[in-house]
Specification:
Strand content: 5-15%
Bound molecules: pseudouridine-5'-monophosphate, manganese (II) ion
Order of helices and strands: EHEHHEEHEHEHEHHEHEEHEHHH
Oligomer: single chain
CATH topology: Indigoidine synthase fold
Number of strands: 11
CATH architecture: 3-Layer(aba) Sandwich
Radius of gyration: 18 Å
Number of helices: 13
Structural class: alpha/beta
Largest sheet: 11 strands, mixed
CATH superfamily: Indigoidine synthase domain
Distance between the termini: 29 Å
CATH class: Alpha Beta
Number of domains: 1
Length: 306
Amino acid sequence: MTPLAFSPEVAAARAAGRPVVALESTIITHGMPYPQNLQTARAVEQAVRDAGAVPATIAVIAHRIHIGLTDAELDWLAQAKDVMKLSRADLAACLAMGRTGATTVAATMICAHLAGIAVFATGGIGGVHRGAESSFDISADLLELAQTPVTVVCAGAKAILDLPKTFEVLETHGVPVIAYGQDDIPAFWSRTSGLPAPLRMDNAADIAAAHRMRARLGLPGGQLVTNPIPAAAEIPRAIILPVIETALQDAAARRIAAKAVTPFLLQRIYELTEGRSLDANIALVLNNARLAAAIAQRISTEENTA
Ligand code: PSU
Ligand code: MN
């Protein structure tokens, strides 16, 4: 038996055949400070509901993969200490040991697929870190996209990464990268990375149809939808790039490595921008939740009429 525990809201949605959107929990425990993490998690769930789907925030608690958290569980997780950051490598061990774990993009994709959820919204995926040619630091998120059939809606890879290398790796592994409504790939806090997107789609129906077509062709892996941050919340590249440079230097000076790199950089950039990076992060996640809900609705309509 797969150790899944559905929240009452998600169980009801499944019984009624309603569209569900998966949400990750590492962004709550390792990506944002308290209490903004809790406020954001609640607002993202509500954005999914307002857009006509049901949110399923995913985390590991007491030997179970929770598909959907109650508000009390969300409140507890947002303040919990010693939460493991789970990727593909740690998921089973965390469950077996009965520890608390927050799912990254990679682990959330695995859990969503186990629960029959096709669409997942996050902020920015992990990718190839700068200096990867010596550190070999490449996020497991990329390889998960190559093997698990979930459509992931993000605002691009986080701009702390080496973006050209990140998208080269995705191309090598056969992951469709779709820019939503524009020709170039967005860069998380900024609307553009300057890199042309391999694919462009302008509506949720096309993204849903491509998701279904991959399944019909028997292709493994998911799709990456990159949705630009709303213009009003954007931090232009010229402003954020020097901040990222400073944060990277600080990380190097303090010998931050492995799983700690991304949380350290996000926290440092938050301090250096006096909170502006967090406001942008919140705005882009909400925007992604709305698009993911629209895609999930389209996929579920097509499934019901197939
Ligand atoms: N999106 C955000 N903030 C985050 C993350 C995504 O807006 O903190 C998390 C995701 O869980 C993603 C992880 O999988 O950062 C990447 O971590 P790493 O680079 O260590 O693979
Ligand atoms: Mn890493």
